[in-house]
Design brief:
globular, homodimer, 333 residues, eight-stranded mixed β-sheet, two-stranded parallel ribbon, 2 domains, alpha/beta, Isopropylmalate Dehydrogenase
């Protein structure tokens, strides 16, 4: 029910995901009449792998996060996360209120032992290399002590190694310079912790202008810096797209330019399209939650389901849990 | 002597600035033989408004900032700032080590009463409106309490109102959302302070994706967030420029595209060129210091001199000082 478009986006995206994966089953949690209306065209084969869990209550986007707990056991968001808790679902995908989703996640699923708080991880397109890197946290925590930045590094590293099959992922700390004395106390302390962690390939500090240049597979920062980073990037891309279109529309050789620029813009848009990079995982919980942008369209929400599917296949929470255990045992020795 | 290119950039930029302004005189502080070699082609009329203050000592880019004070009274940077202190110059422009420049500035010029620490202010191009906004701090302070964010807002507001002649500049706080409960304690407290300051047109929170969209004339944040924001933006622009060039080089209609895309790219580059936006003022000192990018070329360093020239003409430090006095008196009443 979440996001700007509700079932009109999530239901078609669900059908697309079912079509892509024979071994996927989905439970749609929300208003049954609305959902059913959107399922009328779907084939019986697909519908066999679909189940509806009806509720007419939902958490609004502008609610304070706490409202999800007050409306507990009734809202579609709470019910969805609860399905994961009760092992009736392997993952939950939502385009709803981020704060509420995090709160429901922490309340119902609990964090993995050794992880103090969950983090939201987002993708960074490495434009020239047709791959992606990760950045976390991008908004679950506005400030983070060194120990938490260290946890983010561990979790991001595991996600890159499993979901993206990157051997020995390079982990960097976002900072305002490369020199040792740069940055906040938290960042400098986190650097020390990371240097001491043999299971992490820590490559040092990274600056904002370098994150798209394939210098790191995982960029670690607090949720404030991460949120500003991804939103600023999206803002610049949007402005440049509009500028390009405007430029293509005028000029001396306008007919030539329109003819020539159209395929160029189309390809460029495909390469920079944030839609391709939707699906921010909430890491650190004893269960899988993927957060879609609120403004996601069908294809983007489909990618968020894909992300959840991959994390289930790769057993991401179990891997994080095992790594935290290992680190804990090493410290005990 | 500072920056990646030293006098080979700063001297030609100085000559360009002298040519642009009949009422400008410049003192070049650095290695006299090197400077003289670069002045040989300059007209006698220009040279009349040029003076050289010789020193062979300079602060290296990779030095710890403190080295400027240890090498004090000898380095070109220290001498330049000292010229402002001794009122022999109205402003200092440098492409050297930022930390050292800040330290020399605070040590020699002192902050304006009521301003706890200086801030570095950078320009944000508002692409579609052919104007600029300001963002501060972008790196002088990695963390800032609410009172300091409040000071940044006052200083940025004065700069926008004077140098850019914007009536009643809109001031926004960079945050991870628009809702009142979003962000760090410092930001939420700064919002309250700003709401109580009648001389500031506070328009609320702004997100990273909105800063280029002409929603604010002054964006206020701590130096960490500001630094990440401007560097990330520069990084995205650079990647997109390269992507565009690569796209223009291939494709079915490659000859058509090259023909058509060339002027488009040229115009686009001009619009997004960070060179046009060089010259970050250090605000809050009892004197004017403008910091150029270390990698600035002649045109970019010329813009930094222009920025200093405007601030002298507009008496920016005096205006900040007067406003701080007013606020202080109002609080006293």
């Amino acid at each position: 029910m979440g996001g700007d478009f509700g079932p009109s986006v999530t239901v078609p995206a669900a059908l697309r995901a079912l079509q892509a994966h024979d071994d996927l089953s989905l439970i749609l949690v929300g208003d049954e009449p609305q959902i059913n209306a959107l399922l009328s065209g779907a084939s019986a084969t697909l519908q066999q792998r679909l189940e509806i869990l009806h509720t007419s209550v939902c958490v609004e986007d502008d609610c304070k996060p706490e409202s999800v707990l007050r409306k507990s056991k009734e809202s579609s968001m709470f019910l969805s996360v609860n399905l994961v808790k009760e092992a009736r679902a392997d993952a939950c995908v939502s385009a709803g209120n981020t704060g509420a989703l995090l709160l429901a996640g922490r309340h119902l699923l609990k964090t993995i032992p050794g992880i103090s708080k969950p983090a939201i991880i987002a993708n960074i397109p490495l434009y020239e290399d047709q791959r992606q890197a990760y950045i976390l946290d991008v908004g679950a925590n506005v400030t983070s002590p060194a120990s938490q930045l260290h946890e983010f590094a561990i979790m991001g590293s595991i996600l890159a190694a499993t979901v993206d099959s990157i051997a020995n992922p390079r982990v960097a700390l976002l900072n305002v310079g490369h020199e040792e004395h740069k940055g906040t106390t938290q960042i400098r302390e986190a650097a020390k912790l990371l240097e001491q962690t043999s299971s992490i390939n820590f490559v040092g500090y990274i600056e904002g202008n370098e994150i798209f240049s394939n210098k790191a597979d995982v960029v670690v920062c607090d949720g404030f810096a991460g949120n500003v980073t991804i939103k600023t990037s999206a803002g610049v891309v949007k402005v440049l797209e509009r500028l390009l279109k405007a430029q293509a529309d005028k000029g001396l050789f306008s007919w030539l330019m329109t003819l020539a620029a159209a395929p160029m813009l189309r390809r460029l848009r495909k390469q920079i399209d944030p839609v391709q990079f939707n699906g921010a995982s909430v890491l650190g919980l004893q269960g899988i939650i993927v957060k879609s942008h609120g403004h996601a369209q069908v294809q983007a929400f489909y990618y968020a389901i894909e992300q959840a599917f991959k994390e289930v296949t790769d057993c991401v929470p179990q891997l994080i849990s095992a790594r935290m255990n290992e680190l804990n045992m090493n410290q005990g020795n």
